[in-house]
Amino acid sequence: MYELTQEERMILAMVDDLCVDVVSQRAADIDEEDEFPEDIYELFVEQGLFALAYGEEHGGVEVSMHCWVQVIERIARESPAVALMILISAIGSDALVFSGTDEQKESILPALAAGEAKICFALTEPNAGSDISSIATTALPDGDGYVINGSKIFITNGAVGDYFTVFARVNEDGESKPSCFVVHKDTPGLIIGRKEDKMGLRGSVTSQLFFENMHVGPETVVGNVGDGFEIAHHTLNRGRLAVAALATGVTAASLAAAAAYAKDRIQFGKHIADLQAIRFMLADMEISLEASRLLLDQASSAFGGDIQAMMKTASVAKVYCSEAAVKASETAVQIFGGYGLCKDYPVERYYRDAKSFTIVEGTSQVQRSLIAKSVLKEY
């Protein structure tokens, strides 16, 4: 496994302190209120957490993918919705980091690293989820720029974003070319739609976006016209790895809560932790947690290497970790019994949050299709 540097260990210790002192105290309220937690965002800005996803040349702090993933996991133990703030900043800007022009990088990335601006990843549409080849948003050439029309759905931080990486089809030369644009929130024609009322990940605001004759200049194109699929796939690899980290955080939280409750709860004259049935449930949760962390480490090591190998390892981690989180949180609810169904205890929130991970950034079924495709090529 990767050995963290001294600086990375110090960063993680600071994150642990923030989680205990602040995030854990606010997690239930954030879930109940379902509003973007500006207070915690500002605290993360003060501690430089958004800078971890960016290189020093853009005002960031150079850390390994292993460290970044552990930051996500540790925050997610208390609140995956809060951890998503770190995740979305990185995913939304990956297109610029890897394919943006020098001007785009210099004008946007330092503000993101400093937390002075927020960015969103606007890919999903009502009729185009994992099937990104079906995106219907269009960008028609118009003079020296493009006119974008269409809509997006389930956009994390859509209601609070300052910049949006928008994927649309450019129809030119008789071809339909999926492309990527970076757009500011004040661009005329960009309309923020309703906020979704979700089952889980509440406090991470998810919104619709509408583009009505939104004119953008040529300087907004990320990479080249037609690079949209390549940019999206690269970004989704980080996204899937990050969701696996979120899920692992929930698995860890579920195990900790279930074990503590089992040692305290007395039934039939003994602590339920002394019952073999409960012990086996806790053991299975521990096995899943250890396996999840090993897969996360493997996928983190592959990041930045061969794109196909990275895609497979990220998908494997995403499937296993997300499904392990669902099972672990369900088990925690079961161990808590009737109390597990009540909002006075956190395990029902873990259960609601965990289900999201098998869907976002590509469903488990889509990930299995990608994995199988890779396996058949390999053998």
TrEMBL record:
Highest taxon listed in the record's lineage: Bacteria
Keywords from the UniProt entry: FAD, Flavoprotein, Oxidoreductase
All copies of domain Acyl-CoA dehydrogenase/oxidase C-terminal, residue ranges: 226-376
Domain Acyl-CoA dehydrogenase/oxidase N-terminal: 5-116
Pfam families documented for this protein: Acyl-CoA_dh_1, Acyl-CoA_dh_M, Acyl-CoA_dh_N
UniProt record similarity statement: Belongs to the acyl-CoA dehydrogenase family.
Descriptive protein name: Acyl-CoA dehydrogenase
